User: What shape does this take?
Amino acid sequence: SQTIHQWPATLVQPVGSPLSLECTVEGTSNPNLYWYRQAAGRGLQLLFYSVGIGQISSEVPQNLSASRPQDRQFILSSKKLLLSDSGFYLCAWSATGAQKPRGELFFGEGSRLTVL
Amino acid sequence: GNSVTQMEGPVTLSEEAFLTINCTYTATGYPSLFWYVQYPGEGLQLLLKATKADDKGSNKGFEATYRKETTSFHLEKGSVQVSDSAVYFCALSVSAGGTSYGKLTFGQGTILTVHP
Assistant: This one.
């Protein structure tokens, strides 16, 4: 069965410090991968998605970047955090090609980032 | 473009009450529709889905019917429990060129609180 894990679960960082959140998927190959941010405990905003190694699409201009160094690894980074980067970050994956289920997203447990 | 509009919350109900959370959408193409649930402090879990018009998704006593004529996918449950307290997200995805495409568009979420 497929699993997705992201870490750390909780992070408190000072303004101007770097960030690295990591996400890995097991039990599937060539998944689409996603980073979402949930601010104020409500709406979900798609930040990045990736359809393959080294292929990253950004949905909104921001202080963050993403990388996919391996097929099932997705990393969210920042060189210098801002207060506005605080939020709950969710990694997700979906099946591709002939794999099923189609269109469905599977989410990680989330990483709560507080920037002080 | 694609969009999802959900009923404004929060929704507060007593145990065993009937629940409806409205969801309407606009989409290019033929979307698949989803309801996700987020329990406090956790990531999102798929609750149910429907992939074509008139399909009914159901799970854990929740139901939603894909209504193409009204572009709606309202979530219902006949008798809610305290354990149903969570945030509920309606979402859609549109396949592109017959390939799997899991980039979801989410509604803003509806907070449900059920009291004993």
